């Protein structure tokens, strides 16, 4: 969902709605103006984001919109980033904790750990494996699941992403060498 805002106006105009997204399922359409989010007027896109980011999984956002001048109430069910990532890529990702960074021999919490790959998914087709790290998407570094999820959502109908990956190659029995590479991942639609 993309927005335009007008200076001095407490409404956001919906500029794009991705098919099958929570916004589309909730009834949002291009051209509608959002005048209230959970009972408060959004003063900017940042204000809107602050009102909806961090809502718990499955929670509804109550919107009041102007649709061709008619005031309507809509409910949009929030979808957690984990679900977006899994649905589009087939990946289950986990943020790196200090403990997992130590276990993996990392200096810091760089990237996201792949903990599962859905069979037959785009990630499986790209030969991604559990235990690899995703450190970037389309040349932007990612250390938080939220950043990866936003990148996928903002791709809209562009169903391809270039991931920067670190894999671990075993050298002899006791040594492991990190190997960095890039993978072009053809994603499923929203």
Topology of this protein?
Layout: E1 2-5, E2 12-16, H1 22-25, E3 33-37, H2 45-52, E4 60-67, E5 70-77, H3 81-89, E6 91-95, H4 98-104, E7 112-117, H5 122-125, E8 133-137, E9 140-141, H6 145-154, E10 160-171, E11 175-186
Antiparallel strand pairs: 1-2, 2-3, 3-4, 4-5, 6-7, 7-8, 8-9, 8-10, 10-11
Biggest sheet record: 6 strands, antiparallel
Shape: elongated
Q: From N to C, what is the helix and strand string?
A: EEHEHEEHEHEHEEHEE
- Give the strand tally: 11
Count of helical regions: 6
Mean pLDDT score, rounded? 84
Distance between the termini: 11 Å
Structural category: alpha+beta
Rg calc: 19 Å
Summarize the structure in words.
- α3 (81-89) packs across α6 (145-154).
- The protein starts with a strand and ends with a strand.
- β10 (160-171) and β11 (175-186) form a beta hairpin.
- Mean pLDDT is 84; it is low at 1-9.
- Strands 6, 7, 8, 9, 10 and 11 form a six-stranded antiparallel sheet that branches.
- The chain has 190 residues and is of the alpha+beta class.
- The chain contains six helices and eleven strands.
What are the defining features of this structure?
190 residues; alpha+beta; six-stranded antiparallel sheet; five-stranded antiparallel sheet; 38% strand; disordered N terminus
Summarize the structure.
With 190 residues, the protein is α+β, with helices and mostly antiparallel strands. It has helices at 22-25, 45-52, 81-89, 98-104, 122-125, 145-154, and strands at 2-5, 12-16, 33-37, 60-67, 70-77, 91-95, 112-117, 133-137, 140-141, 160-171, 175-186.
């Amino acid at each position: 969902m993309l927005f335009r805002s007008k200076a001095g106006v407490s409404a956001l105009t919906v500029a794009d709605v991705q098919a099958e997204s929570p916004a589309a399922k909730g009834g949002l359409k291009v051209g509608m103006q959002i005048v209230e989010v959970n009972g408060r007027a959004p003063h900017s896109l940042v204000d809107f984001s602050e009102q909806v980011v961090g809502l718990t999984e499955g929670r509804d956002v109550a919107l009041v919109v102007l649709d061709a001048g008619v005031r309507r109430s809509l409910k949009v069910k929030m979808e957690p980033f984990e679900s977006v990532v899994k649905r589009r890529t087939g990946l289950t990702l986990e943020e790196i904790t200090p403990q997992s960074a130590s276990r993996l021999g990392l200096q810091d919490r760089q990237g996201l750990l792949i903990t599962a790959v859905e069979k037959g998914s785009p990630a499986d087709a790209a030969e991604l494996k559990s235990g690899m790290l995703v450190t970037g998407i389309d040349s932007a570094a990612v250390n938080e699941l939220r950043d990866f999820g936003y990148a996928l959502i903002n791709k809209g109908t562009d169903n391809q992403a270039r991931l920067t990956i670190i894999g671990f190659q075993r050298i002899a029995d006791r040594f492991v060498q990190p190997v960095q590479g890039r993978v072009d991942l053809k994603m499923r639609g929203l």
